Amino acid sequence: MKLSILITLLTVSSLGAIAQNNFSPYSQMGLGDIDQGFYNRTTGLGETGIAYRSNRYIINNNPASFSALTNQFFTMETSIRGTFVDYYGQPVDVASTQSGDITFRRLAMAIKAAKHWGTSIGLVPYATSNYEWNVPYYLQGSNQQVANHYYTGHGSVNKAYWANSVEFFNHLSLGVEAGYIFGDINQKDILQNGTTGATLTSTQNDIYLQNIYMTYGMQLYGHLGKHWDYALGGVYSQKSALLASPNKLVLDNDSAVLQNEQLPDGYIYLPNSFGAGLSITHNQHYTWVADYRYSNWNGVQRLNSYPGQDYNIISSERGSMGFEISKKKTFFNNRIELSYFQSGLYYSNSYLQINGKQIHDMGVSTGFGVNSLKTPLAYAITLTYGIKGTTQNDLIRENYFNLNIVINYGAIWFTKGRKFD
Amino acid sequence: MTIYNYLRKELLFFLSCFLMALFVLSGCQKQPDLQFGSTYTDDNTGANIVVVDTSTINVYTVYVDSTATAATGYQYVGTYNDQYLGTVSSRSYFQVAPPSALPVLDPRFDIYDSIGMILYFKRANPYYGDTTQTQTYVVNQVVDTLFQLAPFQRGWFSNSVLPLGPALGSTSVLIAPNIPYTSQGTGDTVRIRMDDNLGQTLFNMVYDKSDTVKQTGIFENWFNGLCISPGPGAPAGIIDGFKDSCVMRIYYRANAEISSESFIDFPLYNKSSQWNNVTVNRTGKAISNLILPTALAQIPPATISSAIGNIGYVQTIGGLNVKLTFPYLSSIALRRDYIGLLRATLTVRPVPGSFSQIWRLPPAVGIYATDLNNLIGAPLAAVGTAGAQTGSLVLDYFNPLNTAYTYDVTNFVKVQITNPSQTALQTGLMLSVPAPANTASFNRLMIADQTYPLSQQISLSVYYISLFPHQ
Fold first, then answer.
1. What is the mean pLDDT of residues A17-38?
2. In this complex, is the C-beta atom of A75 within 8 Å of any C-beta atom belonging to chain B?
3. B8 lies in a domain?
4. Which one has a higher pLDDT value, A68 or A304?
5. Would the CB atoms of B42 and A99 count as touching at under 8 Å?
6. CATH number at residue B435
7. Same domain flag for B346 and B268
8. For all residues of chain A together, what is the average pLDDT?
């Protein structure tokens, strides 16, 4: 009973807080900032985990990974992230160049439901937007009277998923994730008096998105001699048409509704995406991982119509690698992990091309995790330093620092009355 | 591994703290200042504000034949030649009463000296015109009319006229109103020497203790009243507003052991029966084409500005107000992109060169609803306020084109822009000098109609919220 209350509480809180994120000037374009993070144990590895398997942590980088959970093991994870950004470039006012926030990022649960079947549900961000800026302009019909467009966008597209994976032949795991994408892209245009700042009128354009987005995964793993283990992974997300329901709400200066129009529905396509990964482990102590992901946005370019203008959506890719040292101890013939240390690096070309420049994102990460022996909890703290964008071509570069905290709860279920203490 | 199948208290405590920290810290967000994004935003997805300041405004001058100029507190006397209105004159009718206590006179010792009218021009008294000109004032007695005695009591208006007898006296004087100073060297007082025959007659009545001077009613029926008028001939250039506390004074010498000057005052009686008769000679001016009433009871006639020099005339004490109509206002609401009215502003500009520090503008001009009856209706309030508007005059003598009255007419336009009534074309706004200046001030406003250049004409700026369908 207490557990169900806790889960409900976490879910509600995550829905409320997941929409908040850091100021991101590029999030006004496309679907917003598509989140590259998984906010789990692989965050310290530069989010490298297509071939990663864990018997305790929820590795939703690849839906095939859940079969690696310990039998009858129930696990729940939640993540919080603090982000601090310095902005550089010609559009940045030198008097105010920083931002920071702390947001809830993820809630996920998984269980090893049967000997070879792992399943997981969760709520994760897919894309977020958060921006504000002012554009002074002359009122139409006047060459003297100035007003101000105050544009804001604060929205998020999230994914609720249910993933299952099944192990075959002790060396192959296949997984499938049914993700339900939902949320909205919104932009509010508040027209203000150029002198007093009083609101003259406002327009809120919302595009509500929803549909299923399927992801398939595979992991092939085994031993290489006496001291080495390997894993190969692959993921594939199938192109999906999100139902896009635009709505336009216009208010006057007294906030009275002038127009609330439901515009004709359309579709925004998410592209075919695939990724491949490799993991090599030595003596269950040292692990090297590497990933590559590619999203074919070029393939849906002609199908999609995005908000805004003067930018391009092009195919994106991401490469990353990481290294992990795991400290384990043997209890009653079982090797129990006590702690681990990770480091990683990554480089990505995002799906945005602005002023002829594709927006790059690169960085390094390091993480440290502890599994409590006296409580059912485990903790992971990850630090990431990255650079996104460029100051060339009148663009903005963001130097960001992320602090990610993952809390994991684990317990054995279906014990048929036996209690352990 | 230690295995639990229930939640421990420590876990619940930890998660509670985590959630609290989450909500507290997530409010710590701050934002940088970036001028980025306007290039990438489609300007046509949101509502915009469109200004329409080319709406046609019909300017009419509405003439009412009289205004209630009684009991204004001032006796307006004078005349001036206005470049736009013609020759404007005002004279004051009033009554005087015998003293409440008659002095005891002895013809052996007390000798009549003279009689005169004493007028007071205090600081801040109103005036209009050229203060460097000398003005002649003439006193006449009202004759052949029962003066405010029952059953002939009535209200007095600016067009009320009573016949006058021969002049009893006159004087020419120059008044510097802001000091104040008169050329008679008597400070703020203007004295008019009157006919000694009248003075001797009244002096004798006082000596005789005649019922005529003992009983006010008999006195008024006999004396009727007085009228102070500007002198004949070319207009001098100014109308002065004297306080209505004037007196008619008989001077005599009281010869006792020591001879002394004494006087008997006949003060102004019944202030409500004092009124100012205003007349205008418009000959030779464009306003001479003004349509005048032809019957006692009729709708005040309105004359389109094109017939009277492309000007709208506001001088409410002279019966002139301006009515504005907006015949094509509804066409704005019919635009494809119109979805709502934001505000509307009326800017009234005086004809360039029509005002100066001599020919002063009314500091306040009210705006009122009006309809096909051309009457002044309820004051038009600005959005969010309940009070009447007076134009918020911006007066700039150095850059006269900056001079303007401005009104928030949103409440009017909001109704009128979609007014389906057949009388909508006659529904409009009236500009009029508000009380008390409407009957106590000669300041006038010449409104430039839309034949004047854009920067000099009356204009209506309609700000509407624009959104093209399916943007």
1. 76
2. no
3. no
4. A68
5. no
6. 2.60.120
7. no
8. 88
Last residue of a domain, one of B235, B255, B280: B280
Quote the pLDDT of residue A364. 97
One-letter amino acid at A141 equals G
Local structure of B10: helix, strand or coil: helix
B325/B435 same-domain check: yes
Q: Regarding predicted confidence, which is higher, B297 or B1?
A: B297
Q: Which residues of A touch B414 (CB under 8 A)?
A: none
Q: Which residues of A touch B1 (CB under 8 A)?
A: 331, 334, 336, 412
pLDDT in tens, B192-243: 999 999 999 999 999 999 999 999 889 988 898 999 999 876 676 899 999 8
Least confident interval from A20-24, A208-212, B364-368:
A20-24
What average pLDDT score do residues B92-113 get?
88
Same domain for B178 and B301, yes or no, is no
pLDDT in tens, A69-103: 988 889 999 998 888 899 999 888 877 788 888 88
Q: Does pLDDT of A15 surpass 50?
A: no
**Rounded CA separation A225/B114 (Å):** 143
Rounded Cα distance, B345 and B339, in Å = 18
Predicted pLDDT of residue B9: 62
Q: Residue B92: inside a domain, yes or no?
A: yes
How far away is chain A from the Cα of B32, in angstroms, using its nearest Cα? 5
pLDDT of residue A278: 97
Mean pLDDT is lowest, of A2-11, A37-46, A89-98, A222-231, for A2-11
Q: What is the mean pLDDT of residues B298-303?
A: 92
User: B317 with B238, same domain?
Assistant: no
Report ipTM (2 d.p.). Answer: 0.73
Residues B139 and B171 occupy one common structural domain: yes
- Residues B377 and B440 grouped into a single domain: yes
Q: Which residues in chain A touch residue B33, judged by CB atoms under 8 angstroms apart?
A: 92-93, 95-96
- Say yes or no: B199 and B315 in one domain: no
Closest CA to A295 of A221, A236, A223: A236
Residues of chain A contacting residue B39, judged by C-beta atoms under 8 Å apart? 310
| pLDDT at site A135 | 83
Q: Is residue B397 part of a domain?
A: yes
Domain count, chain B: 2
Say what the pTM is: 0.79
Domain's final residue, options B220, B247, B280: B280
Average pLDDT of the segment spanning B287-296? 89
| pLDDT confidence bin for B16, thresholds 50/70/90 | low
SS (H, E, C) chain A: CHHHHHHHHHHHHHHHHCCCCCCEHHHHCCCCEECCCCCCHHHHHCCCCCCCCCCCCCCCCCHHHHHHCCCCEEEEEEEEEEEEEEEECCCECCCCCEEEEEEEEEEEEEEEEECCEEEEEEEEEEEEEEEEEEEEEECECCCCCEEEEEEEEEEEEEEEEEEEEEEECCCEEEEEEEEEEEEEEEEEEEEEECCCCCEEEEEEEEEEEEEEEEEEEEEEEEEECCCEEEEEEEEEECCEEEEEEEEEEEECCCCCEEEEEECCCEEEEECCEEEEEEEEEECCCEEEEEEEEEECHHHHCCCCCCCCCCEEECCEEEEEEEEEEEEEEEECCEEEEEEEEEEEEEEEEEEEEECCEEEEEEEEEEEEEEECCCCCEEEEEEEEEEEEECCHHHCCEEEEEEEEEEEEEEEECCCCCCCCC
What pLDDT, on a 0 to 100 scale, did the predictor assign at position B8? 58
With respect to residue B204, please indicate whether it lies within any of the assigned structural domains: yes
Tokens of A375: 């409580």
Q: In which domain, by residue range, is B221 found?
A: 74-280
A187–B467 CB contact, under 8 Å? no
A142: nearest CA in chain B? Answer: B51
Q: Is A415 on the interface with B (CB under 8 A)?
A: yes
Query: Does B301 lie in the same domain as B220?
Result: no
The first and second tokens of residue A145, run together, are 């009277």
